[in-house]
Amino acid sequence: MNLPNIITIFRILLVPAMIYALLRQNYSWAVAIFLVASISDALDGYIARRFNLHTRLGAILDPLADKLLVAAVVILLTWLGWLPYWLTAAILLRDLVIVSGALAYHKLIGPVEVKPSYLSKFNTAAQFILIVLVLAEAARWLALGPVLTAGFVLVFASTVLSGLDYVWRWSRRAALYHKEGPQ
After folding, report:
1. What mean pLDDT is reported for the chain?
2. Per DSSP, which regions of the chain are E strands?
3. Can you tell me the distance from the alpha carbon of 8 to that of 20, in angstroms, rounded to the nearest whole number?
């Protein structure tokens, strides 16, 4: 257990607090909690890279923490009327495809080396920024109207493209494995 993993576990523990804040429709608290979670995501990654503290546990927990947080928030924001259903469906479907693909690859071929692409990192950042903006609008800190609509479209596009990118890259890797054996 190292510092980046402890920070990641802290981020996972923020998910119930985030759910509670959203269920109470306390959007100001939700913004604060989500910002702390976002900063902790950047911080644990920075510390792991800077001090070479990468672990297998961290490689599993970090994306899991992101997916738990985003899934909980987008489901509740959709239920509360702040996000469109089609966007939430795309976000959840992408994550389901990625996790299912990773599990299938692990079972059929071997260990999965989790390394997000730049497109995936952009998608995660875009999702986090959009969620902060939606929460800020819900808290009545900002009035963003058309900006949010553009954000919905941008996040939808990056979600679909990054999901397709994962499917393409891992399908090629699996096909190459079956053709040439382990690389």
Report:
1. 93
2. none
3. 20
